[in-house]
Specification:
Largest sheet: 6 strands, mixed
Strand content: 15-25%
CATH topology of the largest domain: Beta-Lactamase
Number of helices: 13
CATH class of the largest domain: Alpha Beta
CATH architecture of the largest domain: 2-Layer Sandwich
Number of strands: 13
Helix content: 40-55%
Order of helices and strands: HHHEEHHEEEHHEHHEHEEHEHEHEE
Number of domains: 3
Length: 472
């Protein structure tokens, strides 16, 4: 519960009750119901004030004699003065105060305390003491214009009570209010402790979020520096390496003079290793551009059948040397797609090279493509929603092999840069672990998806899905 001034009570103050206020602990509507029940039971009006004199609740029945008195200016002024005095009277917490009215009635003012502190007051009245039988002289002298017979007729209609009875009523009301205050204090304290816990949890969450943001910003900056470093170093290495390869080719062709068989073997080794290193550098450059978003796609209408045929032509010698059969299966009526032909061919080439490398002699690698429908967004993970979800046309390219396959727990990791399933120093298959990462980024750049599945009974199947506009 909030204070009327809009400020939340201090948690420490609540536990010590040093700043507890009556209005902090009670619900005014509930308080109104409580004091109304007293009025209905005893017929005496009740007002409840805070320690600052603010009216928190009241149940007042204006007496007929009071209505008559207020019809006259002198009586109205006297009533206003009496009520103001009663309202601002602060009773002694140890003893109730009885304030007389010029009409012969009385007001009973009782202090409300909680945990030994004064928090408000109860005002009962006006009520007529049981011993009053005749019109008091103070009433006749104050309201001179009012007919005495009328006052004599109406005054006895005012609720009568003995002083002891009213004191007991006030004491009973204080007892009920004490229970209400205790319950309210308990609820308020619980609420404030919960709010304090929530605020502390929120503060800790903000601190963690800030630390995470700082760590993210730092990692992002480090990633940018890494990409710049790779791009710079790769560019600087490519220039002298091109010269090394060029000169080794000229030497192997005898331009610098004839070579012995052993010398020719050494020169060819230099050229082969240089070309391997150049391929690695080009992969690093591609990865750097893809990560930074600076790789520009030169889009045109791409004939997937031609792209796959080109890949097969390039890899046929390697497949024959490795004893692997290479097949391609693409329907003639396959539509074209809008994309970068060189980059799509590069993605398929990387997958096919890997398939040949990891397929033992006697195995086979097959490339195929077909028109398919793909569920948009995340609906494909929800079978029920996928039945009514929107779809788009895609060209589905599959690169399947009968090689060693990829363990299920490794299939998500293989697209991480530099990650290799067998990363030991004695691994049988070479490579840098960049190929699949580059393929994934190239396909994503075409708004496509890549996935890997097992190829029963052995091997793997890489599936590329690239959107196509059939109206193009």
């Amino acid at each position: 519960m909030k204070r009327d001034d809009g400020l939340e009570p201090n948690l420490e103050d609540l536990t010590t009750t040093k700043n507890i206020r009556l209005e902090d602990l009670v619900d005014r509507d509930s308080l109104k119901e409580v004091i109304t029940s007293f009025v209905n039971l005893f017929g005496i009006s009740v007002r409840l004030f805070s320690s600052e004199g603010d009216l928190l609740a009241d149940a007042v029945e204006q007496q007929e004699v009071c209505k008559v008195i207020n019809e006259y200016p002198d009586g109205r002024a006297a009533c206003t003065a009496t009520i103001s005095t009663v309202k601002h009277t602060v009773p002694d917490p140890t003893q109730d105060t009885v304030h007389p009215c010029f009409s012969g009635a009385r007001y009973h003012i009782a202090a409300i305390t909680y945990d030994g502190r004064y928090v408000g007051r109860i005002v009962l009245g006006p009520y007529l003491p049981a011993e009053v039988k005749e019109l008091p002289g103070s009433l006749l002298t104050t309201v001179r214009e009012a007919p005495p017979s009328r006052l004599q007729q109406l005054l006895p209609q005012m609720p009568r009570a003995r002083v002891e009875t009213v004191r007991n009523i006030a004491e009973h009301m204080r007892g009920i209010l004490d229970l209400i205050l205790f319950s309210g204090h308990k609820a308020l304290l619980t609420s404030q402790m919960h709010l304090a816990s929530v605020r502390e949890s929120y503060r800790e969450l903000q601190d963690k979020n800030q630390r995470l943001q700082d760590a993210y910003d730092k990692l992002k900056e480090l990633d940018r520096l890494k990409s710049n470093f790779i791009a710079t170093i790769s560019h600087e290495l490519r220039t002298p390496l091109t010269s090394i390869i060029g000169y080794s080719e000229m030497m192997s062709e005898g331009i610098a003079g004839s070579l012995t068989d052993e010398q020719l073997e050494f020169v060819n080794t230099i050229r082969d290793k240089g070309e391997q290193l150049l391929t690695l550098i080009m992969s690093l450059l591609d990865l750097s551009k893809l990560e930074s978003g600076s790789l520009a796609l030169v889009k045109s209408d791409v004939d997937i059948r031609k792209s796959l045929d080109d890949v097969v032509s390039l890899l046929k010698p390697n497949a024959t040397k490795a004893g692997v059969q290479l097949h391609v299966d693409v329907p003639a009526a396959l539509p074209t797609i809008r994309g970068d032909a060189n980059r799509i061919r590069q993605a398929v080439l990387n997958l096919a090279e890997n398939a040949i490398k990891f397929t033992p002699s006697g195995g086979q690698v097959s490339l195929s493509a077909k028109l398919a429908q793909q569920v948009l967004d995340d609906a494909e993970d929800d079978i029920g929603f996928a039945l009514i979800a929107p779809t788009r046309s895609v060209i589905e390219i599959r690169v399947a092999d009968t090689g060693i396959g990829i363990p299920e727990n490794e299939r998500e990791k293989i697209f991480t840069p530099f990650y290799q399933v067998d990363s030991s120093s004695t691994r049988e298959y070479g490579g840098t672990g960049l190929g699949l990462s580059i393929v994934q980024r190239l396909i994503h750049a075409h708004d496509g998806k890549i996935s890997v599945e097992p190829n029963h009974p052995k091997g793997s199947v890489f599936i590329l899905k690239i959107p196509v506009d059939l109206d193009a």
